[in-house]
Amino acid sequence: MNIELSEKLSLLKKDKVFFGTVGHIEKLDHKYVISVDLYNNTTKDIDELFFTGTIKNLTYLLELEIETPNLTMLAHKDELFEIQIVKKNTQGINIFDGVLKLTTNLAYDKVNPFRGKKVRVKIAKASINEKNEYKELYNKHVKSLKKLLHIEEKLEIKPKKRKRFSTNVGVLYSQYYVGKGNCSYINLGGLSKGFFNIGFIKEKKSKVSQYNGFSRHKPNWIILSNLNKYNYNGAVRYGNHNLFSCDWIMPTVAEYNINLIRLFYCILNSGGNIYMLKYKANSSVVSLIRDQVKMEVYYTSDNDLDYNGLSLYVEYQDKYILFGNSDYNFMTKSLVNQKFDMIVVPYKGSKWKAKISLQKYDIAQDTSNRNGFKVHRTDKSGTFVCQL
User: Fold this and answer.
1) Is 120 exposed, middle or buried (0-12, 13-18, 19+ CB in 10 A)?
2) Do 45 and 12 form a contact (C-beta atoms < 8 A)?
3) Residue 193 C-alpha from the chain's centroid
């Protein structure tokens, strides 16, 4: 455990004022769940430890989560807010109940000041000076990062060493239930291996064990279907050198946020590479084709990348498709007309509206044949392993 980081975290516990922007808005039944990415003077000192590479193979997310029946002022994703922790009996139209969350490696749980801390906060628009300071800091880091990112129209994954496909391994696919997002591990006959999303969110009432076995793997790549925080929470919580030092592949990002900047610095300072893919319709943007195996990645849509993004297609004897978070209705034309032996559909929180004959209840592992293919879900008891 880094002593300097532990000391900074203890200082953070005393802070009452933060600044932040809305990073994610999710509609659930009759309420909204809003996540605000946070920073203040103390986090600037903490960030400096990560951004300069003083601390490697470690990062964190700091956010305020608010549940509210209406969005009101919080609907503005591009607005900088001042957030002040107030007394529990404080009332007002700009007073909200929320949860402060600092997610970092489990080694720091004992000194984590915000492990789901319930707070009442007063939210107001930040001053002009604060907005200018934030914009200056934001532009500085985005400019620095863009010099280090690889922007690609087409990326070919090549095995690190010259290997032949192993029929003993075949294509081994492991799907882990992680609450939201999804986490899939793929070993392509020993040629190459990696994760498609590494989401993690702890559900207190869930009896399902959350996946935390990243330390057992040495992936060559990690593909994020989109940059929703659910798809990389696992790296923040359980990440190690094996995860952060490999190749990270993801869609291009329109807007950065402070938590994403923290993750990017962690990857780059740990020796990893970040490849961002330009949108391309009806054609794969990532491929690995060798011997009997073919793996390709497609954009499902350029519409609403909070939900849509990249999908994974694997062909080896059987044909297999993983949607990421995307709806089948948004699938690229080059894929929707193909026939699949197996389809993995998104978790329940995704915009899943496809006209596929699924039963009304959640499917954990369904081996029956529906419209010519087997269906697996990534939610509820969705952990399974299959060998193609």
Assistant:
1) middle
2) no
3) 19
What sign for the dihedral angle of Cα 10, 15, 19, 21?
positive
pTM: 0.87
- Report helix angle 41-51 to 3-12, nearest 10: 160
Question: CA nearest 93: which of 118, 127, 123?
Answer: 123
First to last CA, the chain: 41
**Residue 110, C-beta contacts closer than 8 angstroms, at least 6 positions apart:** none
Residues across the chain: 388
Residue 165 φ/ψ, nearest 5 degrees: -65, 135
Q: Centre a 10 Å sphere on the Cβ of residue 255 and count the other Cβ atoms it contains.
A: 12
Close Cβ partners of 127 (under 8 Å, ≥ 6 residues apart): 82
Query: 99: buried, middle or exposed (CB in 10 Å: 19+, 13-18, 0-12)?
Result: middle
- pLDDT tens-digit readout, 227-245: 888 888 889 988 899 999 9
Q: Please name which of 270, 49, 39 lies closest in space to residue 138, comparing C-alpha atoms.
A: 39
* 156/153 Cα distance (integer angstroms): 10
Highest mean pLDDT among 21-30, 268-277, 306-315, 362-371: 268-277
The helix/strand/coil state of 384 is strand
Q: Are the C-beta atoms of residues 385 and 176 closer than 8 Å to each other?
A: no
Task: Retrieve residue 209's tokens.
Answer: 């064990």
> Which has the closest alpha carbon to 184: 313, 354, 275?
313
Helix, strand, coil percentages in the chain from 3-state DSSP, rounded to 5: 20, 35, 45
Place of tokens 């300069």: 52
**Number of other residues whose CB lies within 10 A of the CB of residue 107:** 12
Q: Is the pLDDT of residue 130 over 80?
A: yes
DSSP state of 211: P
Out of 44-58, 84-98, 131-145, 356-370, pick the least confident: 356-370
Spatial distance between the Cα atoms of 20 and 351, rounded to a whole number of angstroms: 27
Amino acid present at 194: G
**CB–CB of 10/111 below 8 Å?**
yes
